[in-house]
Design brief:
This protein has 16 helices and 28 strands. By secondary structure, it is an alpha/beta fold. The chain folds into three domains: about 130 residues, Alpha-Beta Complex (Protein-Tyrosine Phosphatase, Chain A), CATH 3.90.190; about 170 residues, FAD/NAD(P)-binding domain, CATH 3.50.50.60; about 150 residues, 3-Layer(bba) Sandwich (FAD/NAD(P)-binding domain), CATH 3.50.50.60. α7 packs parallel to α15. The two termini are about 50 Å apart. InterPro entries: BLH_phosphatase-like, FAD/NAD-bd_sf, FAD/NAD-binding_dom, Prot-tyrosine_phosphatase-like, Sulphide_quinone_reductase. One of its GO terms (molecular function) is quinone binding.
Length: about 550
Amino acid sequence: MDIKKLTSEVSVTPQVTVADLPTIKEQGFRSIICNRPDGEGADQPTHVEIRKASAKLGLDVAYQPIVAGKVSDQDADDFANLMRELPGPVLAYCRTGTRSATLWSLTQAETRATADILSATKAAGYDMAGVVRRIVNGGKTPTDTGDAKYEVVVVGGGAAGIALAASLKSRKPGLEIAIIDPADIHYYQPGWTMVGGGIFDAEDTVRTMGSLIPKGVHWLKSAVAAFEPKDNAVILDGCRVVKYDRLIVCPGLKLDWNKVEGLVDTLGKNGVTSNYRYDLAPYTWELVSGMREGRAIFTQPPMPIKCAGAPQKALYLSGDAWFRNGALKNIDIQFNNAGGVLFGVKDYVPALEQYITKYGADLNFFHNLVAVDGPAKKAWFDVAKPDTPVERVEMAFDMMHVCPPQTAPDFIRVSPLADAAGWVDVDQATLRHKTYDNIWSLGDVMNAPNAKTAAAARMQAPIVAENVVADIRGSAPVAQYNGYGSCPLTVERGKIVLAEFGYGGTLLPSFPKFLIDGSKPSRMAWLLKEKILPPVYWRAMLKGREWMAKPEKVSAS
């Protein structure tokens, strides 16, 4: 049997036989719904056979036959009634399970987000994109026509999306571009490390979205529900359809706080904080500046995550603050990293290890945070060392800085644009989608094997802009991305190890060694982070001024 769980109360499966019933009973199901009409296949048991055999095992059976491809709204209502009336958990079946999954999806239209429906059914192996179209369009709006049409549609108004739109406008001012993003506020997220270190004010990392949308670019303040790349269409919340000639996808990633049991309930209190949230970064500094003794845990989840150095940046700036105020000798610092190395590019590790030693921090590799009890000041980690059974360990804390697990946004993961891991599937050099020639992606959401940083997006935006304009002119891609990313590791107040690298860990320094030697702590690099990069972000990157970000041209073969 191939039973697929949709929720704790409902699962679906292909055709059930009498021989399957004991297994169904053993797995805890109490009821069965048959959605397959009798006589559909020569090898198919009738629902009466199933019902009789089920009765001997104490299983309830309901017969709701659905002709393939003919699921009506009334069918969905009837299915919902059965789910309410039958003792659960319930197992529904048809020939393949698809009709049962369709019925369940339609019953969830009023109570679940379409992305959640798609996610649950995709995890079970069923593609409900067509059903979701029906839900989001109210059963009426086709995607062969749209409510609006633009030459270029950009999904996402973060660093990547606005920089890309600005770069496109600077190259082709007359281009009709729309940015789709529901947010009112745009954040300079690289600044949150500095907020948590008591250096920046949180308010300095904020601008209104409307003030940053490039002149002449349309802003559609809405969320994306689904993609229909075969129809060159994006479906928005509220059943609107936006058509495009070319699509650029850059909505960032999702911070999956709920993946750690108990974390959401204790964030911002009980000594649990994170620089990955605007409203929590000030709490980090409040905790650090007020702590005089005890244990401080800093966590890092499995990759990929945005700015992989950020979890240890919080450690270094906290350790430096305690070093300066004399409290460090009384504080037990623990760095619990789900990975097996301090930093992924080995050239920068020696300098970082010197600061781990300076602050007396313990490095606990292969430690992945799985649960938190804030009031009890306890955390649990799954320790998964190579070739060793996973062990769960408990650690007490007085303060804990958490880096949350991260995934692609739900509406991306369940879309036809995603790879098997849920990220937008692109060519790592041109950033063009591997399947759809008129789609590109950049920023944190795509699957090129580079570091997910704002510096990477700064380099990617002009590359995608060059290639989109070349495509408009009928040319092949003209620019390529070398995987550049930068991580300014704030090892102490006033000094930074400036890590700059590309694909495969290749070092890609932007400055000569006499100015900034990235392998060593540098005051000049701190000046860059504190004084230069914020205005570069606001006044250059988001305005299409490509300072130190000129695209690398594709080499002639």
